[in-house]
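Running this now, will post back.
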Amino acid sequence: MSNNSTISPENSDAEARITLGLLNAVQENASVSQRSLAGELGIALGLTNAYLKRCVRKGLVKVAHVPANRYAYYLTPKGFSEKSRLTAGYLKRSFDFYREARTQCDEALAICAAQGWSRLALAGAGELAEIAMLCALQQDVEIVGVIDPGAEGDKILNVPLVGKYTDLEAIDAVLLTDSAHPQKTFDDMSGVLPAEQFLVPTLLGVTRPRDAGDDQ
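Update: finished.
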């Protein structure tokens, strides 16, 4: 029952990311096991098997028997070409994300400066938080902390990393920068500050409870 219906990533970006990761892994290690592939890709073993079979069907990967009843996987010329295409697409999406993230962070920080909110916290560690910190250097706003219960370490770019909002003092506003689980972080922190002081970049796709219209 391993057919295309087994493959069910949420969107085409996820599908491209998994396929690119698989092709990279096969190129680096022809004898890689499917279990190791699943670990590297962060997906279930069955889904890894389905993706691998599809790559073989599409002529991107060829399979050869090796001693000890194992298999070796090799990229075909078509596979190398597809890997190059997916890599270029990934780099373009990364550049587009950075450009849009920088624009939206600049806009959010400008709002803070205009409102006189000089002490800002970030909700969520990661790439978006680092972009926001760089943007803050151009604004009259200080990033006083990054709130992320699951992050490791005690600082990010010399900014304190804390587990909860109450670990920081005198915060004027919070900017959501969790790109991994933005809705969950937004929901968890909603109510900590007035809604207008909890700034959310639109690129994160977060739904506010009253986006459909206020009852008041």
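The first helix runs from residue 12 to 28. More later if anyone needs it.
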